[in-house]
Amino acid sequence: MNLVGRPVPRREDERILRGRTRYLDDIDPPGAAHVAFVRSPFAHARIASVAVPDDLDGVFAVITAADLERVGDLPVQGIEGGEVSAEGHPVLARDEVRYAGQPVAAVLAESRALAEDAAELVEVDYEPLDPVLDARSSEVTMSRWHKVAGDVDGAFASAAHVVRATHALARLAPVPMEPRGAIASYDQAEDQLTVWVSAQDSHRQLAGLAKVLDRPEESIHVIVPDVGGAFGSKGAPAPETMLVAAAALATGRTVKWAEDREENFVASYQGRGVEADVELALDEDGRMLALRARMWADLGGYLMPTTAIPTHTTAMLMCGVYDIRAADVEIVGRRTNKVPTGPYRGAGRPEAAYFVECTVDVAARELGIDPLELRRRNLIRDLPYETALGWTYDSGDYARCLDAAVELVRPERHSDDERVVGTGFGMYVERAGGQFETAEAELLPDGRVLVRSGSSPHGQGHDTTFAQLAAERLGVGIDDVELRFGDSREVPRGVGTFASRSVAMGGSAVVQAVGALKEKCDAVAGGRSMSLREIAEAEPGLRASARFESDLVFSSGAYGAVVEIERATGRLRVLRLAAVDDAGTIVNPLLAEGQVIGGTAQGLGQCLVEQAAYDEEGNPTFASFVGYSLLTAAEMPPVVTAFVESASPLNPLGAKGIGEGGSIGTPGAVANAVADALGGVRIDPPFTEDKLWRALR
Amino acid sequence: MKPPPFAYHAPQSVEEALPLLAEEASVLAGGQSLVPLLNLRLARPEAVVDLGGVAELDYIDAREGPLRIGAMTRQATLERSEPVSRGWPLLRKAVRHVGHPQIRSRGTVGGSVAHADPAAELPAALIALGARFHLRSAGGERTVDASEFFLGPLYTVREPDELLVEIEVPEQPDGTGSGFAEHARTHGDFATAGAAAAICPSRARIALFGAGPVPARAEAAERAVAEGAAPREAAALAAEEIDDEHRRALCAELARRAIEEAMR
Amino acid sequence: MRIAVEINGSAYEGEVEPRTLLSDFIRHGAGLTGTKVGCEQGVCGACTVQLDGEPVRSCLMLAVQANGRSLRTVEGLSPDGEFHPLQRAFHEAHALQCGFCTPGFLMSMEAFLREHPDPDDEEVREALAGNLCRCTGYLGIIEAVEHAAREMREGR
Q1: Domain final residue, candidates B108, B140, B169
Q2: For chain B, which chains pass the contact test of at least 3 CB pairs under 8 Å?
Q3: Measured between alpha carbons, how far is residue A261 from residues A197, A267, A299, B195, C47 in Å?
Q4: In Å, what is the CA distance from A167 to each residue of A147, A164, A351, A684, B46?
């Protein structure tokens, strides 16, 4: 039965379409205490005191940092080859707040409305301090990574051309349609803490809770319900989740926090926020000899567990898809009085792709070489390829992706009194997968197979994709496979869903576990022709598990964009986009295309309308949808997609990752198209009308 | 975000409603502007007076002479009205730009006028049509021209104890063409700027919104059109006073489109 | 205040404050959690339900305003079990990923297609603009609505 590679529609859909889902806020434990946070209105301030009035209507408790002495700060993950400060984000602010929206106190009340009423009455005595809002000028470095490979100085000294360019990608808000949330319940008799959390996996939540609350992991049960999108923002445990759990432990009540949209905008960690000064040394034939990059990441007030990771990723990918043998790349993460940044769809790869691809177009213009030709002269053609910076790209066919993008986008360039039209391309290579993933397969009495996976879907369709993989491996129908995700007591401890890892890692683990189960079944059958049900009757309880480990795999692609700018208003219209992605073997092309289009929409959002900007006092201007726009269906251009499938040698599926390519490849292509339309004038996103209008004058 | 607590009244007639009006009471018409403010706790009235039960304010009367619209008429009703479409097409063009269908199911014509968001479409269209607004209070009645009603962003001549009860739109001269253009970041978003035009051989009325603190007639542009100037010239006059270069260009472009459409 | 609301043909009663939002009454009062809440400011459309057949944002209505009125939510879209053509089309076109926005889209589009059975592509896109989706990038949703419209015109 050939299921892999087929566009199987999703099994998940029925429940969703009938409204039978259960996201975090749909869970209504009777008698729960509802949480509203007191959040700092200041970007930077000392806290002199916190006074809680008595007799607050409907309030069970008000928790401040003083009540959390035995609760630790959130941990901080380091980066390979770099330095990261160990100071993490406190659950509740103690004597200082470092961003507007930072949680200072938590009110537990009979209802969210009463909790919000009471939160307004908590008196916090703030002594405002001047905020620092710019990474370059901030004096506090929280992370640093620097690598020099090859004879960079020599290459620059002897180069026929040195091209310099500065680029920036503004901060973005992830804006999943479902905000964050957590519910915690403590059984004192059993000393068991149960936490439901809208998250990207149960594993990191569990580890974080155990560490911060100083409890053994076996005493914590994490359940991930249906999740309404995350895009990276629900990966690292949130301070609010820790508070909910600590509150349940302290009060013995079930405690619920359902984040609202305003909180999600101001307090959920953001993406991007990086500036780069890039220098490229080329010889007289346009061959790239060396690259220098100095980059500043605007990390916000604190390091969240994964804040520094995208910076490392960006730095490691600064040679892009090009054969550049010498590189000097440094990225510093500076503290600013803004909400922290963290992984957001692309998580460092869009930054690298953007900086490199924009620089390549600048170089093409300065050298007088066609931008496609310049790329073709420098593409890596022989893979696997170890980059100067240290990663090994496992497989890929960059030239083929580029050719396909050119053909699919149908380049166009013209100009008249009313409008200008330009075309641009952006390539990318990105890291996916890595670490390990787990799966367990169990033969059920009725002959169906139950697979428990460490991966954790939040819209990607793992239930269908993994069922395709398992069913094909077993030689059964897709309905004979059942998947289980998200409950820490039900699934093996694994890594989770982020960094486009689930098919490559989770899928491989599923295939291995199911394969091992099949071998056991075949052994029981001993050559006889037996159905799985008969085998289960003969030997009940057959099971197998797998832990699949792998180095990083590298997806890649080429995006093309044709844009039109209206002279009278500066209005930008993306006329069409071509997205060519190489994610190795595609298990379900229907779902894979959905990921590409979704990612592309986010990339376009960055280009057209999205920007999480703070004003001069450090107040967020994006506290609601009035200040932060998302694209609607009316703005989406036609998008043509294509897959090149350079199988990865690093897993049994040959698969890589497809979840983020759309957000990685789009900004560079659109930026280059805009620059093409503007005759070479370079602008960073968002490409707002007044920027474009002025550039055209 | 949950609203702060408030007292709630649901009068069933204008007479019942009037004594409830006060500084600290917010009028709830369609709720599409008030409820977000309540949810964000940007509005904290002591009481909310819900006009949803005041059926006498929900009507469109085009039987003879001017168009009379009850303040509680839903925007969707205005959008679907045949007589409005025939006699006052500019209103239909403008209302179709108000938010999204889900907003227009509930939002009211009177609510949009009384809320006076500077980016709102209906106030500008009503100004271009020469509308008059009828206000009632426990103490009496008065009528205010649309062009004099708006004082600033979210601020009108309506006193806290007054209720906007009717929007009256005069008949338009034969051959009046209408044009409407607006610009927003994304479809259905609050407008950045826009223009409404009602033009006939003897008279031009052009109103801009989003260009300043209130929607206003562009009188220099109107005179220019009446004197036979090309739309582009007239539009430039409409936007003349705007400081920011790009905004000026944008408003001029929108005015030009509205004027051209009205003159077709 | 005590209110009585008909939802999907059944009667629901409950005690609410004036400030209780209709979205919260539907979800937590009536226990019909198919309707989702994404913003409470009337922009995202996840909370869209139908009031007497008209699509409305339930987060922008007070529960008391629905007293004595009739609502339909996503749970009432296919009462006898058979998928509505829109539900079928969404499934086939992969017009949903995380699913959080989906009920709102279904309730908005069912009303739209009832009133505009033969929309062109631009009309569909504009009608969809009142609902936000962060996962799909919309192209699958546009395809689903156009397909459902065709099916419904052909009486299927």
Answers
A1: B169
A2: A, C
A3: 17, 10, 22, 33, 13
A4: 20, 10, 9, 7, 51
Mean pLDDT for A590-599 is 98
Domain co-membership, A536 together with A579: no
Establish if B190 touches chain A: CB-CB under 8 angstroms: yes
pLDDT tens string A171-180: 999 999 999 9
Which residues have C-beta within 8 Å of that of residue A167, sequence separation ≥ 6?
A275, A276, A278, A354, A355, A358, A359, A682, A684
Q: Is B245 on the interface with A (CB under 8 A)?
A: yes
Residues 532-571 on A with a CB inside 8 Å of B are: 568-571
| Residue A291 falls inside a structural domain | no
The verdict on a CB contact (< 8 Å) between A113 and B3 is: yes
The SS3 call for residue B239 is: helix
Residue of A nearest to B188 (CA): A632
Q: How confident is residue A1, by pLDDT bands cut at 50, 70 and 90? A: low
Smallest CA–CA distance from A640 into chain C, residue: C139
In a domain, A167, yes or no: no
ipTM, 2 decimals? Answer: 0.98
What residue numbers bound the domain in which B239 lies? 177-263
For the entire predicted model, the pTM comes to 0.97
* Same domain assignment for residues B75 and B132: yes
pLDDT in tens, A96-144: 999 999 999 999 999 999 999 999 999 999 999 999 999 999 999 999 9
Q: Does B253 sit within 8 Å of A569, measured CB to CB?
A: yes
- The strand pairing partners of A546, in sequence order, are A439
Domain boundary among B145, B169, B193: B169
Mutation target vs A (from B32, B35, B38, B189; most A CBs, 10 A cutoff): B189
Measure in Å the smallest separation between the Cα of C97 and chain B Cα atoms. Answer: 23
**pLDDT average, residue stretch A65-91:** 97
Domain around A536: 435-549
On average, the pLDDT of chain B sits at 97
For the domain that residue A442 is a member of, what is the CATH number? 3.30.365.10
A106 and A212 belong to one structural domain: yes
Pairing of strands B7-9, A572-582: unpaired
